[in-house]
Amino acid sequence: MNLSKYGLSEELLTVFDHLTDEQKIETAMQKYRVRDALRIFVYYELEQHPYTKKLLLKKYRNSPQDLYYCARDIIGGHWLEAEPIIMASPRYAYLYSRIVIRGRWPEAEPTIMTAPQYIYHYSRDVIKGRWPEAEPTIMNDSYFWQLYKDRFKL
Length: 154
Fold this sequence. Notes:
Distance between the termini: 58 Å
Strand content: under 5%
Number of helices: 11
Number of domains: 2
Number of strands: 0
């Protein structure tokens, strides 16, 4: 098997050969950086395993950033259990809606609406038009209000 496409060595994989799926997930998360753990999950087709999601959610329960990256790079899509944590951050709520959901995320819009920078980006990249409900907030930031006005011809 060509392990180079996974960025893994045979020596590394010998650690995992005798383990159950759950043990592989635990070992990868405990002993390796997230990037290497991701490669191991993909190689063993464990990225969608419920135990993977459970451990990632437990490990990163206080980090919208890390949960966003896990949803994007490991889970590869919607991750309902992590969404309440991701939506706590305007930045990662915007990124999750744009990259993972690929559309509006109404539940996170009140959070996104608190940050002029992400109001602008969300309007431009997700809504692809004006966001009247957020305009009173973005008006308070002269830089992003000017970008918004120029973009949407106000």
